Amino acid sequence: MEHPQSDSAPATPVAPVPAAATMRAIVQDAYGDADGLRLEQIAVPLVGPDDVLIEVCAAGVHIGDWHVMTGQPYLMRLMGFGFRGPKAHVRGMDVAGTVKTVGAKVTQFHAGDEVFGACDGAFAEYATARVEKLAAKPAGLTFVQAAAIPTSGCTALQALRDTGKITAGQRVLIIGASGGVGLFAVQIAKALGAEVTGVCSGAKVDLVRSVGADHVIDYTDTDITTSGQRYDLVLDMGGDRTLSQLRRCLTPRGTLVLVGGEGGGRLIGGAMVRSLRAVALSPFVKQSLRMVLGTTRSEDLQALAALIDSGKISLVIDRSYPLDEAADAIRHLHTGRPRGKLVITI
Ligand SMILES: NC(=O)c1ccc[n+]([C@@H]2O[C@H](COP(=O)([O-])OP(=O)(O)OC[C@H]3O[C@@H](n4cnc5c(N)ncnc54)[C@H](OP(=O)(O)O)[C@@H]3O)[C@@H](O)[C@H]2O)c1
Per the database record, which ranges form the Enoyl reductase (ER) domain (predicted)? Predict the structure, then answer.
C-alpha cells in the first residue's frame, strides 16, 4: 500500500458554521470491513484559521480509503491513523465542491469558489481542508471528474516527475497501468514524451491502450520479469514482484520507482518492506531504486488541471455512487476491479 495522506490537523473553532448545524456523513467507529460504515447525521466540522469549509459535491474513492477503513497494514495505526480505531470518524479524502466559508487567515479562497483536492472526511455533505491541498476546479470539469483526480493524479505525477525524473524519449514500464494511479501515470508519461508500456490484466488491455499506452502487456499471460525487455524507468503499482524481479526489467542504469502493491503481510505490508529494502540497497547498485510517498498539493493539482485542459489527460470514471452507497463503492474498489475511478456524489 504506502499511503501517506494522514496530515490532518485538529480544527480550531474560530469561524461560525454558516450551513446546517448537522450533515449526513459516512462514519466508522472501529477498524473493519465496509459493513462497519454507517450513514449518520453528525455535526458539521468546525473550520480552523488556515482551513476552508467545503460543501462537498463529489468525493473520489481510492484504495487508501480501504486501508484507513480496515487499519491494514497495521503499521498505519502507528503512523497516525489511530491505534485502536480510526482517528478520523468520517471516511474519504478526495473532494470536489464549493467553498462555504474560510478560516480567519485564509486569503487564497473565498466562499463560492469551486475547488478540488484533499480534505478530512470527504464522504459527507461538508468537509474541512487545508488550503495548500486545494486548487481551483477547472471550469471544464464536472465535480465528479474533479473528485477523481487528487490522490491518484498527484501520486502519478510525483512518481514520474519528481522521483522518477522522467525525460522525453525514455522507455517507461508502468505496472498496474489500469488502476487509479496507473491510468494517470500512462497519460502523464506520454505527455512528457516517453514511450510507454502498460501492464494490466487481459480484461483491461483495451482500456490502457485507449488512454495512449504505446504497448500493453497482459500480466496473466506474460511474465514481464523474464521477457528480456529493459526499461529506463519502471513504475510499480501492482502485484507483488520481488526487487530482483523488478530490477531485471531495468536497463543497467535505469530507475525503479515503487509506488505500491497490495501483496504481503498485514503487519507492515509487503510493498512497504520491499520499498524500504530498495532504498537501502540503492546506494550500492548502479540502478536507482526509489519509493514514493505521494501527497496532494495545490501546485500539482494545478499542473494536472493544465494537462487536462490541454487534452493530454482524460479522466476515466467507472461509475459514481450516492452517499448512502459509499460502502458498496469501497467494496467494488477492493474486489470488483473497476475500469477507472469510482466517485461518490453528495
Ligand atoms: N505511495 C503512495 O503515495 C501511494 C499513493 C496512492 C496509491 N498507492 C498504492 O499504489 C497501489 C496502486 O494504487 P491504485 O489506486 O492505482 O490501485 P488500483 O486502482 O487498485 O490498481 C491496482 C492495479 O494493479 C494491477 N495489478 C493487480 N495485480 C497485478 C499484477 N500481478 N501484476 C501487474 N499489475 C497488477 C491492476 O490491474 P488489473 O485491475 O488489470 O488486474 C491495477 O491496474 C496501491 O497499492 C496503493 O496502496 C501508493
Answer: 32-344
Q: What's the number of domains the chain is made of?
A: 2
Pocket (CB within 6 angstroms of ligand 1): 1-4, 62-63, 151-152, 155, 175-182, 199-201, 204, 219, 237-239, 259-262, 271, 292-294, 337
Q: Which residue shows C-alpha cell 480509503?
A: 65
Calpha distance 330→344 (Å, rounded):
10
Looking only at Cα atoms, what is the longest distance across the chain? Answer: 62
Tell me the three state secondary structure of residue 175.
strand
Spell out where 259-307 has E strands: 288-291
Rounded CA gap, 144 and 121, in Å?
A: 16
pLDDT tens for 251-286 read 999 999 999 887 666 767 778 889 999 999 999 999
Residue closest via CA to ligand 1's atom 22 equals 179
Distance 112 CA to ligand 1 centre (A): 35
What is the residue with the minimal CA distance to atom 11 of ligand 1? Answer: 260
The 10s digit of each residue's pLDDT in 171-227 is 999 999 999 999 999 999 999 999 999 999 999 999 999 999 999 999 999 999 999
Query: Ligand 1 pocket test: which of 3, 181, 257 has the largest number of ligand atoms within 8 Å of its C-beta?
Result: 181
Closest residue by Cα to residue 235 from 171, 308, 284, 283:
171
Ligand 1 closest atom vs CA 203:
40
CATH of the domain at 242: 3.40.50.720
Q: Is 9 exposed, middle or buried (0-12, 13-18, 19+ CB in 10 A)?
A: exposed
Show the domain range for 36. 22-149+315-345
Res 12: pLDDT: 43
Residues of the chain with pLDDT under 70: 1-20, 263-265, 267
Q: What residues contact residue 302 under an 8 Å CB cut-off, 6+ apart?
A: 135, 136
The CA distance from 201 to 9, in Å, is: 39
